[in-house]
Amino acid sequence: MQARLVASAGNVQLVPDKYPATGVWAYNASVPGPVLRVRQGDRLRVLVQNGLSETTTVHWHGVRLPNAMDGVPYITQPPIEPERDFTYEFAPPDAGTFFYHPHQRGYEQVGRGLAGALIVEEREPLAVDRDVLWVLGDWRLNGDASINGNFGNFMDLSHAGRIGNTVTINGRVPEGFRVRAGERIRLRLVNAASARAFALEFRGHRPWVIALDGQPVEPHQPAGGAVVLGPAMRADLILDMEAAPGSRHAVHDGFYRRLAYELTDLEYSDEAPLRTRAGDPPRLAANPLTEPDVRGAERHDIVFTGGMMGNMRGLARGMAWAVNGIANGCGDSGLPFEPLLVLRQGRSYVLRLVNDTLWHHPIHLHGHSFRVISRNGNPTRHREWLDTVMLDPRERAEIAFVADNPGDWMFHCHVLEHQASGMMACVRVS
């Protein structure tokens, strides 16, 4: 498959029509960017043209691809200069829900609208009535619907990141989602926000989680009834429409207690039910991931520190966070760096991640997927494969993986303000 993405400034109608259009940065003049679809194992070739006034790149989040295609400036490629282009080409080995976004000054470029979904389709389609994608976006807008330009301010860098005041689904403030009683929907959720996390409750319904971060998982209902997605995380749900024709049910986001709100409503048509019972949720076929040898794995501790009320020693250099005591801007600045870890290709590793801060951190490893094997010393129930693991304040988690993809790979918090202000490192596989 071949595609072209043009990053440029433009205007889109994010909010209801009574407000003006919003000036954004967008791929192909749309927010989110175009949905790219490719079959598992088929080759994808994307020409990216930079129509911005600053450099950019495209990172293919969660895809296990060759290092040269990872889209990290100064580490895997030179940044794409204005009026220049770069061609990314790779064959995704895993089916699932992924997305793409800049890795150059991402806290602003993503915050202005640059993100889009990449869907890698299974060889055998899942038996559902509809395959639906919701790309969740978060915006900090002024009263005239323009984007507030206070990117990278100290409060956002050292606290929870840039939490906006307007949430969109597929680039628009949602007015409701039409469904029919008895239908079965595969709902792909992508959190494309730079900092906002979501905890979605589908009230009156029982969603089944069938994949996380693009990787199949044993179908299960989410703990506590809410689907929690930190920035850059994805979830595939089976949503059976079990309510009565003509009814209406809220999708509630309660991740931030003081900012809880109704994201949208499931609006049932008056049609007769499509079926009376949907049956058990389907299972996705496993992707070709190599199982880590946990017993024989080499182990390392990774400690994340900083933020307000934390270790702020890096503030003199504009850094608010650190990984193992080092506040790093590698991957954005072009400055020399030393890898946090040097891993032997083909060997199994267990990393003990320690969040020694009062804030949430979605920690992302490029080029690999990993199993989450424990949280706070307790084995995880599903041993899920992820590429981004959400760490709650003061939480510890163990992840296990095989270092089977050579190169220098970013390892960072995906609250993009945290990444830009020190919570970023590099892992070398050689």
| Count of strand segments | 31
Would you state the CATH class of the largest domain?
A: Mainly Beta
Helix content: under 10%
What is the annotated CATH architecture of the largest domain? Sandwich
CATH fold assignment of the largest domain: Immunoglobulin-like
Strand content: 35-45%
Roughly what is the average pLDDT, rounded to an integer? 95
**Fourth-level CATH superfamily of the largest domain:** Cupredoxins -  blue copper proteins
Number of domains: 3
C-alpha Rg, in Å?
21 Å
Mind describing the biggest β-sheet? 7 strands, mixed
Envelope shape? globular
- Class derived from helix and strand content: mainly beta
Show unreliable segments: none
Total helix count? 3
End-to-end distance: 31 Å
Summarize the structure in words.
It is a single chain. The protein is globular and about 65 Å long. Strand 25 (about 370-375) and strand 26 form a beta hairpin. The protein has about 425 residues and is mainly beta. The strands form 6 sheets. Strands 20, 21, 23, 25, 26, 27 and 29 form a 7-stranded mixed β-sheet that branches. Strands 10-9-12-17-14-15 form a 6-stranded mixed β-sheet, with no helix packed on it. Helices cover about 5% and strands about 40% of the residues.
